Input
Amino acid sequence: MTARWERVTVVGPGLIGGSVARALRRRGLARRVVVVGRSEGGLAPVRAGGGADETTTDLAAGVRGAALVVLCAPLGSLPGLVRAAWPHLARGAVLTDAGSVKREVVAAAAACPARDGAAFVGGHPMAGSERSGFGASDPDLFEGRLALLTPTAETPERAVAEVTSLWEGLGSQVRCLSVEAHDRGVAQISHLPHLAAFALVAAADGEALALASRGFTDTTRIAASPEALWADIFRGNRVALLEALGRYEAVLARWRERFERGEWSALEAELARAREIREKLG
Amino acid sequence: MTARWERVTVVGPGLIGGSVARALRRRGLARRVVVVGRSEGGLAPVRAGGGADETTTDLAAGVRGAALVVLCAPLGSLPGLVRAAWPHLARGAVLTDAGSVKREVVAAAAACPARDGAAFVGGHPMAGSERSGFGASDPDLFEGRLALLTPTAETPERAVAEVTSLWEGLGSQVRCLSVEAHDRGVAQISHLPHLAAFALVAAADGEALALASRGFTDTTRIAASPEALWADIFRGNRVALLEALGRYEAVLARWRERFERGEWSALEAELARAREIREKLG
Output
């Protein structure tokens, strides 16, 4: 098998970065996979787990010479990492990220000075786990999933093709959409459901929790997700999330009224519409 | 193996009734399992699927001579079925149900005239599926699940022991609690999560739904449940559900304020508490 890339650098050795690095290696997509971490302590399990050909804590050294750099660090750190990596990108290199919200990171990249054909494409693999860290990484994590890309009018086609080829190579289906559509969409189908799951747990008393069965544990599985990561995402996407939360609160308020007025058949009709929509998602 | 009961009658050939009947037969717990349905059409698959030794559309005939009668019909029909079955119960027979809300059915049973040692115990197996009907039934449905019983001060110990032995025989763990604790508890850990799941789907627009990934499909799996069944449950438990909904809305409103005020570390602390609670549920 010919490697698609000579050198790919993954910044961030956590669940997503670890899974990307391991998948690249297992599939022979890159001749060398470099993983950049903030500390030696975070990189040791990557080396022990065969997750990289090289590891380094030096971002500039890690980025240098790579044809493709994938930022898989926590959302809040992405704009800073884009600015820090940018001056060290090789000629024609493509920088992308795996952050759950695209507005700030895309804006940070747009503000970087043009140089040597380097380009940024915002990315978001729709895969994850309530677990975190390299120990939870899985080279098949992206298999059969959606990867969303948010190129702008300024993004070169070549760079979009490169990042498309990364996620397709890892088994995902790629879709391009605008930054706004992305952030509004994920607010509704990812961020709000997480907030709702955390809130269902927070609103239940101990006596009720002792009765929890599969309906509850499934619905709230994602409330076992790391709170720091999610507080970061909620903050990063607060505008779209507040809008989605407003729509959700309005549905709940309307249904509360239906309960209070005894409008059961109207309620049932609304539940039926939701059930039909949900069934289509499989 | 000696059968525990000579004759057990299951009223309602749906998901729960079908699973009870099939489990009783497979485990040899009853010498004869009788299934009562409203129509011949509903009973044909039960016979074809080996779900009963006898089937009938005549409630009185089905109940007569049974030591144990399990009502597995839709929630709204349970009080009427208790009243209809009561005069036909054998001497010392135990009547129980599998309804998701206990207040009305327990009250209906309490209003029946004492006769021949017949007794009622409210029951609720915490098992189910978003699918319904005999075709979705599963003799292992109750394996490893919780079964809740709501005896009152008037319920004879013997009757509680009989129904405990039913659900334990089907693989469940039995817990007794008051009608009020039951209805408040399930409002929080079952009914509200269903309402929340339906509402998450109802609040999402089509563009967002096209991005749905595992977080969304897991959280809203229960929104694929039959709406008639759930409208019935929401109506039956409206008082406790409105209280649970109020608590939930208050959490969401508080978190909305935290977003608007930028109180991220306070929000993160609340998410952490929910995550810890959720993790303990496994």
Remarks:
- Strands of chain B lie at 5-11, 30-36, 54-56, 68-71, 94-97, 119-121, 123-125, 146-149, 173-176.
- The longest helix of chain B spans residues 179-203.
- The domain at 5-177 of chain B is CATH 3.40.50.720 (Rossmann fold).
